[in-house]
What does this fold into?
Amino acid sequence: MRLRSWLPTSGKVLAGLVIVVVFALVAIVGPMVAQYGPRASGPEVLAPPSAAHWFGTTQTGQDVFAQFVYGARVSLAVGVFAGVVSQVVSIVVGVIGGYFRGLVDDGMYILTAVFLVMPGMPLLIVLTGYLPSRGMISVAVVIAITSWAGSARVLRAQTMSLRRRDFVEAARATGESRVRIIVSEIMPNALPLIASGFLFSVITGILSEAGLSFLGLGSLTSTSWGTMLYFAQNAQAFLIGAWWWFVPPGLAIAIIGAGLALINFGIDEYANPRLRTGKSRAKSAPAPLAAATAEEPHSPVPDQEPQIRPGGSQADPVIEVAGLTVDYDTAEGRVHAVKDVSLTVRRGELLGLAGESGSGKSTLTNTITRLLRPPAEVTGGSVTYHRRGTGAQQEPVDLLHLPADELRRFRWTELSIVFQSAMNALNPVMRISAQFDDVLRVHRPQMRPAARLELARTMLTRVGIDPERVSAYPHELSGGMKQRVAIAIALVCDPDVIVMDEPTTALDLLVQREVLDQVMALQEEFGFAIIFTTHDLSLLLEVSDTIAVMQQGRLVEYGAAMDVYTDPRHPYTQTLLRSLSDLGALV
Amino acid sequence: MTAIETEPASPTAEVVLEARDLVKDFAGRRRGLRRERMRAVDQVSLQLRRGEVTALVGQSGSGKSTVGRLLAQLLPPTSGQILLHGTPVAATSGRAFIRYTGAVQMTLQDPFASLNPVHRVDHVLGRALAIHGRARGRDQVHEQSLALLEKVELTPPERYLHRFPHELSGGERQRISFARALAAQPQVLLADEPVSMLDVTIRKEMLDLLDSLRRSENLAVLYITHDLGSARAYSSRTLVMYHGVVVERGSSAAVIDDPQHEYTRRLLAAAPNPRRRLAG
Amino acid sequence: MRTRRLTTAAAALTGAALILSACSGGGNEGGGDGTGEVQPLTIHANSANTYQRNFNPFSASVLHGARGYIYEPLVASSPQMDEPVPWLAESVEFNDDGTMMTYTLRDGVTWSDGEDFTAEDVAFTFNLFVDEPATNLAALDVVEARATDDLTVEIDFSEPMFAFEHAVGNTLIVPEHIWADVEDPMEDTNEDPVGTGPFLLEDFSQQLYTMTKNEDYWAADEVQVEQLRYPANTDQTFTTSLQSGEIDWSGGFVANVEDIFVAQDPDNRGYWYPGGGLVSLTPNTQEAPFDDPQLREALSLAMDREQISEVAMQGYTPPAHPTGLPMPAYESSLSAEYADAAYSRDVEAANDLLDEAGYEMGADGVRTTPDGEPMSYPLEIPSDWVDWVTISQLLVEQFAEVGIEITPQGVSFDSWVETRNSGSFDLTISATAIGQSPFDMYRSMMSSEYASDGAVRQNFSRFYDDAADAALDDYAATADEAEQQAALDTLEQIFVEELPLVPMIQSPNWFQYNTEHWEGFPNEDDPYAFGAPFQNPDIMIVLRHLTPAQ
Amino acid sequence: MKYLLRKVALYAFIAWSAITLNFLIPRLMPGDPVTLLVERMEGRIEPEAMAAIAESYGITDDPLHVQYWTYLGNLFQGDLGLSIGFHPTPVAEIVMGALPWTLGLVGITTIISFVIGTGLGVVLAWRRGSWSDHALPTLTFLNAVPYFWMALILVLVFSVNLGVFPVAGAYDVNIDRAWSWEFVSSVLYYGTLPAITIVIASFAGWVLNMRNMTVTVLGEDFVTLAEAKGLPKRMVLVNYAARNAILPSVTGFALALGAVVGGSMLTEVIFNYPGVGYTLFQAVQNHDFPLMQGLFLIISLAVIVANLLADIVYIFLDPRTRAEA
It folds into this structure.
C-alpha cells in the first residue's frame, strides 16, 4: 500500500519510468555482464546472435552486445550531461532574466532569441566540425550550447508569471532575500518545467549525439549507440543483412526517447490537469468540489429541513428542477455536489441562486444548461423545460435526455448563458460581429448577412454600446463592455431563460451597478427569465424576485426575496444575513 | 490636491508609520521616444496609529494597493517620504529592508495565491521567524510556530503545522498569512483586501480576528478594501482614493454616513442593498 | 570516402567531395547509348553528392576525366608502369647538370577546338608555373621555358631535375590561345575545356556528366570507348550501384567486397588493391623518448601487422614492407638485401630490447623511461577515419604487451593536421603517398629540407640524418640509373635500420572492375598500371587497354 | 506596427549575430584552410605557392577588424567567397544549386507534416478519453525515432529488399533536366521515400503539441460558451478551439523550420539528396570553411525570415498582438 502510493498513477509515466530504469540498469550493470570488451576484436566476424555473442558480432569480430551496453553508458551519459548543462544554462538565463527584468533581462532575452532562432542542428554541425577534440564531453557541451534556448524561454515566461504571483510578493513582504526567493519560492514551482525541459534536453542530447556520430562527427574512439550505427553503416551492414548490428542501437534510442517523452507527458499532465487522460483524469476532482471537501469548520451544517416558501412570481413555470442529485466520482469516493434539489423558474422571473463557494450552485446551473462534464454525473431527478405557446408545443421537454441535435436547437434559442468572466467567454481572435454572426447563422439560417449584422448592431445599442464597436475585438473593450457584449449575445435569439453565472462579480462596484440596471431594464423589455447566481447575497436580495439559498449541495431556503430577507428561516440563511449586517453591507 | 476632510481625527495614539506626499509613477506605453508616465499614486499622505485601524477604500485601479506596497517598501516611491516612528526610511532591499519588515508587515488579497503551494505551514512560519530572529533552534521555532497558529485561532495548532496550502480552506490560508506577518512581531500590519476573496461568513470571522489582533498586539493596521461597509464597521478612520488621489478622509462614521465627495457618494449608491427595495 | 582517405590522398586530391558513380539507366540496356554500337563506360572515381562544373586542371577539385582524358601530359609515367610512355612529347633530353630539359613534341596533335598544338603551348604552361605559383602543383623549380621551334621546347630549372623527370613529364599541357586570356588561372572553373585528349565534354549536370570520344584525337585508333559516364554517387549509393552492376569501373572502399560485389557475378567482377602508399605509426623523433631508435625498433617488433591488416583493413591491404615501399609498384627498386625482407612480430625480443635500453617495467605493467616518466602516450587520430580508429585500438592491445600504454584520442581532421605538422605530438599515425618514385617517398620521409621551426609539410616524424640527406642529393644529381639505385640502397638501409617511421601497412589503390561491358582492366596477373579511376596518368593507359566485352 | 518594428529590430540583431558568429567561429577555431588544401595536394606545394594559394582564397594576416569589414563588404555584394572543396566554384553558386532541392523536399514535407500533425492533434484532443489516448505512446515513440535510422530502415525495406523506390538521388540521371512530365515525375518518384521519412519522423511532434494546446483551449470558457450557443461541433472545434490552439504552433512552425533543415540533413545524406543539408555535411567533411559559413548563414537567414513571416502571420491570426503594437 505504501509502495503503491509512491508509484505514479498514470500508466504512461509508469511505462516511461520502467523503460528509463531498464536502460539505466543496462548502462550500469551491462558492462559487468558483458563477456567481451566493446573494442576487443575476435575471430568470429559478422556472426548472427548466438550463445557466445548474444547480439552477434561486427565486421571486426567485436561483440555487439558489449558495444550495446557500453554504448548505453556513453549515450545516456552524453544525454544526461548535455541535459544538465543545458538546463543549468537555461535556468540561469531564464530564471534570472525573468526575475530581475530590466537590462539584465533584455540582454538575456536577446541572447535567448538568438540561440532560439539560429538553426540548432546546422549550428551543432558547424561547431562540431570545428571542434578540435572530439571527446564525448565536448560533444555534449556543444549539444547543450545549441539546445538550451527553448527551455530558457519557457522558464523565463514562467518566472515572470511566478514573480507576479502573490506568494512571491508575500515572501518579499516577509523580508525574504532575493536569492532565497528565487531558489526557494520560484524554482520549486518551476520544477515541472525544469524537469520537463531536462528530459527534453536529454532526448535531444541522445538524438544529437547519435546524429553527429552517425555523420562521423562524434567521438569514434568512444563506443556509443551513434558510433555503432556509424560503423555499421560504414561496413554496409544493411546490404549484407547484418540487422543485429544496427537494429539494437537505433531501436534503443527510439525506445528510451519514447520513455523519457512518456515521463514528460506525466509532468505535463501534472502541471496542466486538463491534459490528463483516462482514469487519471477522472480522479482529479474539479475545483468547486475540492473547495467543498475542504470544509470550513465554522459553517453550520445543513442539518435542518429546507425552508421552502412560495416564490416572488406567480407566472407559468419555464424550468422545473425536481429532486436533482449530481454526483462526482473522486479518488475519495462519491461526492454529492447537488443533492435532491427542487426549484422552479417562472416566466419573466429573476431567480437568485445564492451560495458560497462549493455550495453546488455552479453544478446546478451546469446541469440545467447541460454543460456538466465528467466525472460529474446526474444520478437522480429531472429538469423540465416548458415551451411558450399552446397545444402540442406545450409538451414539457425533458432537458436531461434531449438528443444531441435537439439540444443544439434548444440552446441559445430557448436558453442562453452569461458567464462570470466575460474576458474568457468571448473568443479572443474573433470580432464581436463574428460572435453574433455564428449564432445567427446556425439558429436563424434564413437571415441574410446584412440582416445579421444589423441585428448585432441593434443588440449592442440595446446594452448601451456604440454599434460601431461591432467590428472590435474583445481585447479592445473594457471589462464592463465585454460583459454587456456577452449579455447582448445572450439576448440575440430572444431566449426564454438566461442563466447568468456571477455576471457582475469581476466588475467594479460602479460598473456592476450599471450592468445590473441594464439587465433589469432588458428583462423588463424582453420578459425573459433569469437564473442569477452569485455569492453576494445582498445583491440578490436587491434584484431577485425569488431567492434560492444553497449550502453544500442542498437547497436550504427558497422563497420570495423580501420574505427571505425579512424573515430568514433556515439557520444558515440567518447566519449569512447576520454576517452581512455585521460587515456593514445591509446598513 | 487636498482631500475633503470630513471630520478631523482626534490625534490621540502614537503615530507609528506615516506617509508624506507619496507619489508613484509607473512607466506606461511608449509613445515615440518618450514613455508615457502613469501616475498611480498622487501626493498621498496618511498616518497609522498604534492600536488603530485605518481603512483605505477605493475601486480597482484607484491606487490603494500601490499605497500599501509603497508603505511596505516593496516599491520605491517616485517622491515623498515614509516615516517610521518619525524617522524617514527608504529601504527596498538589503538588511535595512529586512529591519524595516521587522516593524511593518503586509498581507495580500488572494489567500489561494499568497502561499507558495510547495511549502508546508511550518516552513512558512519557520522562515518568517528565522528572518527576523524571533526564534532560534528547532524547538524554539516549533514552539513559536504553534503559538502563532494559536494566535490566529487555528486550533489545535499541531493539526495545521504540517499541511500544504492546498489542504487548507481559504479562510485558514488567510489566517496562516496573518500568522506569518505576526511572526515578525510587527508594529504595523498592512492588510491588502484581506477578505475580498472569502465567503461572507468567513469575512466576518477574519475581520474579527484582525480586530482582536490589533488590540492584543497593539498593532497599527491599514485595512485596504473596496468595501465601504466593512470599512465603516471595522475601522476608526477611512480614506477614500480615486485615480491615485485621496479624495476624502475622516473618521469612518463620518465619511460613510455623511459622504461629502461626489465619488464617495456614488460608491455608496452603487452598493447593493436590499433596504433600498424595502424602502422603494 | 571516409575510409579511403587513409589510403590514397589522390582520391581526396581531386576533391574529396566529388564522387562519381554509375547508374546505367534502362535506356542504355541492350544496345547502347544512342550510337547503337558501343556501351558507354560508367565510372565511379570518387564519392560526390553533386558535381560543380570545374574542368580546370590546376584546381584541386577538378572533375575526374579532365586530367588525362581532356588534358594530356608530355610523358606518362607511373610507379606501377614499367616504362614511361611518350605522350605529347616523343623524347626528352637533359643538359649535363640536369638543369635544362628539352622536349621534342609529337607532330599532328590538335586542340579540340581545331587549333594546332605547338611548343608554344608547352612553354606557356611551364611559364605559367612561374607567373602563377599556385598552378605549380608539382613544385617544379622552373626558371623559364621557351619554344625553339614548333615542336621543340627548352625548359630551364634552378636545380638538377634528374630525380624529377617523371614529375615534369606528367605535367598537363593547356592551350595558350585560351589560357593566356584567363585572368586568374586558379579561380577559373574552365567550364568548357579545350584539350588534346581522347574525350570531349558532352553534357554536364550536377548529378551526371558525360564525355564523348574526340574523333580527331591524335591516337583515335587506340581508343575504343565511345562515351564516358560519371554519375554522382555517395558512399552509400556507390555500394548499391556497384552491387547492382551499374558501374563498370570504380575506385572506392567497399566493405565486404567479396560478398557485396564479386559474389554477384564472379566471372566478370573483380578487384585489385595494389599498394599505393604507406601508413605508419609516426613518432616525433626530435623529442625524447622517441628519439631513441631502439625504442622505435621495439615498437616495430611489438607491432602485429598481420592483425592490423586483417582486422582494420579486412585483409585488403598487406602489411608494409620493411623498406616502407609499396608493392608491387616499387618491387624493382628494392636493394638485393631487402628483396625478401618481411616483418614478423616478436614480443619477447621487443621486451628484451626495452629492458636493455633502460625502459623499466613497472608493477602496473607500464614501463618508465630512464627519466622516470611513465610510458603512456596519447595517440591522436582524425576521429572519423574508421580504419585508423580500429588500428589505434589494436595498437593499444599490442603495445600493452610490451608495457607501453597508448590512449587513442579522436580529434578533428584539422586538429590532427595541425598537431602533426607542428610536431606537438609524441605518437601519431600518418600516411605517405607513393609519389612518382621511391626517391620521392624517401625524400618526403627523411629529407631535412623540410625541417622548419614551425609547421612542416613533409617528414612529419622530423627525422633528420646527414647520411640520408647525402643519399638523396646523390640520387638527384645523377641521371645514371645505377648510381640512383646505389643511393636508393643507402636510403632503404637507413630506413630499415633507423626507422624514421614505424611502417604498419600499405595503403591500397582501391579499384573494382566489372567486365560485363568492357574488359582489359589491369589486375594482379597483368599489373600494367594502377587500376583506380582517379589515378593519373594510369587511367590513360587503362583506357587504351579497354575493349568491348565479347 | 510598432510590434512589427520591434520584431524586425530583434531579427536584424539576430541576423547580425549569425553573421558575426559565422565570421568568428572559423577564426577562433584551429585549422587553416591553406594547410588543409595543401594536405589534399599531397603536400607537393612549395611555400611560395602556398602564399599564392592563401591569397587566392582571400586568407590574409590583416587584423581581425579589417577582415571583418572586408567580410561584411563582400557579404553585402552577395559574395560568399570561393568554396575550398569545390574550388574555385563560388559558394553562392553551390548554395543556390542546393537550395531549391531542400526548399522543395523539406519545405513541402514540413508543410504536409504540419497539416497532418495539427489536424490529427485537434481530432485526438476532441476525442480524448477514448481509444484515441492509446495513440499517444505510439506517437511519442515515432517522435523519438532518430530520423536517420528510420530512413535507413525504410531504404532497406522499400529500396533494397522490395525495390519499390530508388535507393537515392533526386531524379533519374538518364532523364534530361527539363520541365517535362518525365523529369518532374522522376523528381517526385525519387522524392517520395525521403518525403515519407521526414513526414513520419516529424508529424508526431505536431500531433502531440496540437493535442495539448487544443485540450487546454477546450477548457476555456469561450469554448464552453460556443457549445452552449448550440453551434455545430465542427464549428466549435475549428473556429473556437483549433483557431486559438494553433497560435503557439505558428511560432513553433517557424522555429521548427530550422530544426527540420537540420534534421532533414541526415535524411538528405542517406538519400544522397543534393540539398543544403547534404552540402553542409560535405562542407564539414571537406573542411570547406567558406562553404560551411555560407550555408550556415543562408540557413540562418532563411530561418530568421521564416520567423519574421510567422510573426507577421501571427499579427493576422491573433488580434491581441496588434493591440500591443
Summary: Chain C has a mean pLDDT of 87. Chain C touches chain A through 32 residues (CB under 8 Å). Residues 481-498 of chain C form the longest helix (18 residues). The CA atoms of residues 243 and 261 of chain C lie 5 Å apart.
